[in-house]
Amino acid sequence: MNLIEGIITAITPIHIGSGKSKGTFIKTLDYLPGRTIRGMLGFYLYKNDKQLFENSGINEDKDISKMGIFFKNAYPFVYLFSWNEIPGKDNIRLIDFLIQKLGIDWVKTAKIEKIDNGMTIKLTDRNNFLSLKLNNEQTDVKLEINDVITDKFIVKIENSKINIYPVVNDGTTVASPLVLRWCKKCDTLLEKGENECKNLEDNILCFQEGAKYSGLMSFDSIKERKLKRAKPPSMQIETKCPITRTGHASMPEGSDLSPYHIESISKGAMFKFRILVKDEFTESIIESLKNAGIYYGLGGFRSRGYGSIIFDHIEKSNLETKIKKRETEISMMKSKLLVVNSQLILRKGDETIIGFDTFKEYASRTLRLLGSNGNIDVEQNEAKISSSIAAGWSLKHRNSLSELIPCIGPGSCVRVSGDSMAIAALEFYGVGEMINCGYGDVYIIGDMA
Ligand SMILES: [Zn+2]
Known about the structure:
The protein is α+β, with helices and mostly antiparallel strands and 449 residues long. The chain folds into 3 domains: 2-77 and 236-320, 2-Layer Sandwich (Alpha-Beta Plaits), CATH 3.30.70; 81-166, Copper Amine Oxidase, Chain A, domain 1; 321-446, Alpha-Beta Plaits, CATH 3.30.70. 19% of the residues lie in helices and 35% in strands. Helix 6 crosses helix 8. The model has no long low-confidence stretch (mean pLDDT 87). Zinc ion binds at residues 183, 185-186, 188, 197, 199, 206, 208.
């Protein structure tokens, strides 16, 4: 098995149906569900490469042993700023970063200019200066404050733009664990059992109370003990008029047809994607993804020019190696908290359940099919569970919504114990129903709360 990771960039607006609309307002999700990426690729393969469609097991809905490809939800991936947009519209992004991450307040009123033939960005005020220097190869940027190098950034050339990414934050976005509480004022992670924030700022105790946060955050938040909410991609709304059979778009008098408003993710938005695929299909799947993204597209209103995406910065790695590395990390955690990172569908008999009663059963079954004998236990009594509704998606039923399924919501947590190798494998494969569609994704953190 290989793990394919990379970036999806929207080259047109994208609309991902959420099943929710308010009157004539049609909302979009702000991430790309695994089921949607699977639907796009499945449809492309069905039309263009029947053999790969059959062999890869992309069409399989139930039997994990027949699945040769697993899609994960692609969450927003946000660059810091674009080199080309400074000075200009990205000034605010750069200033925000310098204030929030490095505590440099004077930049609020600084003069921002580009010097050295555009290779240096300089910020100055009366008493201070700092510069960002792009190297000749355009591969990295160094931040110098009063001539001392204090930070480095990653450079990516995207659509002929030089985009700057932070180094430490690898851009991974996860569902925030519901057991954690963050200070309402300064976003510091509260200690276990703590009721007020003990963060010191200018020698003054913050002392605000904490609150849980449900939503997407940067994975670094846990390590840095500071909540970094994921910035949602920018959105737009377009108003469209239904076209009647007689072929004109204006509304006839007394007509029931009314204009509708499509919300969409703006062009340029980026998402980090992950796909597990069997070794023998890896190369052809990568090629097919690229073609499918451009010629077929993703989500709704594709005939109206929505949904085109590009896949790039693609890296493939051997999954077994990744699992072994993760096993070592997990084995060093004293107590392990499993956090649900996408909707998780568990059944008990014919019913789906909002609880971890059958988790162990599902985990063991998945592990057995993967050829692992490891064991995992869950401590249900301390679980924090939210509920959600998953969209069942079937390629067999004309690539469409097949059912709405009550399920466990992202951010739900349960303490787990057992074999580290088994836990690591589940972290990559997921657990429960339809793990090939991005459902049942989980991640593990050490004991934080
Ligand atoms: Zn605080």
